[in-house]
Design goal:
alpha/beta; 6-stranded mixed β-sheet; 4-stranded parallel β-sheet; 9 helices; 10 strands; elongated
């Protein structure tokens, strides 16, 4: 039990080590987390680490891997996946099913708004979106995809050009609820009505999806179970250090709400 307590105490005293799943995971966050982890390692404060995001060329994951430190990633491992313990959703399948939902509702021009492909969950959701379009005989259009590294990026011009074009998309798949709220607000500035002018499906089923108006149709990724599995696997591997690297896929579920409707006929 002492070993487990040390792990939990380390998380308590260094919240940056666990509170790092932010939009775009900026370099500043990486530096803060890496500094906190190195401090814990130097002071023997933790037996394992849980990393709450996964992205390409992540210095935090690289440090943990290179130092041979026990760590669990919530998300798909970007490097050395076979040797990495990770807990994730099938984000490609979730993206495909979300786009299928819009297609089955009658939408044919479906756009995508997401964070950079460096964040693996977004890259996988976009891949699923593209798989759905191809499955239905629709060629994905790069101009229908708007991607940003953070909310500080200039995205309004690209979104405005996309949403005010004569043959603009009637639906948009958004990589997470925070961006979907931003999109709803931006549509309001353009005089567009959700869902009449644009249907939106997002991901995470967070509080943001329920407090906005209209409430968002979103994919629930079961974050509670993701966290439980991550903690359970960390403790399990501390107690059994010879276990092979575990990979667990947590189910997702589409939650229909008020941000989607069939498209109006165009003449």
């Amino acid at each position: 039990m002492v070993r487990h307590l040390r792990l939990l105490q380390a998380a308590k005293h260094h919240p940056a080590a666990l509170d790092s799943h932010r939009l775009g995971a900026p370099d500043l966050v990486d530096a803060e987390v890496l500094d906190a982890i190195q401090s814990m390692v130097a002071n023997a404060q933790a037996d394992g680490f849980i990393l709450l995001y996964s992205k390409k060329d992540c210095p935090v994951a690289a440090y943990l891997r290179n130092e041979g430190l026990l760590h669990v990633i919530v998300g798909k491992a970007a490097q050395s996946a076979n040797q990495t313990i990770y807990i994730d959703n099938d984000n490609a399948l979730a993206g495909e099913e979300a786009a299928d939902y819009l297609y089955e509702m009658g939408h044919r021009r479906i756009a995508y708004f997401g964070v950079s492909n460096a964040m693996l969950f977004s890259a996988e959701r976009k891949r699923g979106y593209q798989m759905s379009l191809l499955k239905h005989g629709i060629t994905p259009r790069e101009e229908d995809c708007v991607e940003i590294d953070s909310l500080n990026d200039a995205y309004e011009e690209a979104l405005k050009a996309l949403l005010t074009a004569p043959n603009h998309p009637t639906a948009m798949l958004v990589s997470d609820d925070i961006l979907a709220v931003v999109l709803e607000q931006f549509c309001g500035k353009l005089g567009l009505c959700i869902p009449k002018d644009l249907s939106i499906v997002s991901f995470n089923n967070s509080l943001f999806s329920r407090i906005t108006s209209p409430q968002l149709t979103t994919v629930d990724v079961n974050p509670y179970q993701l966290g439980m599995e991550a903690a359970s696997q960390t403790i399990n591997h501390i107690e059994n250090p010879n276990l092979l690297a575990t990979k667990i896929i947590v189910p997702h579920k589409l939650i229909p709400r008020e941000s989607c409707c069939p498209p109006e006929e165009r003449h």
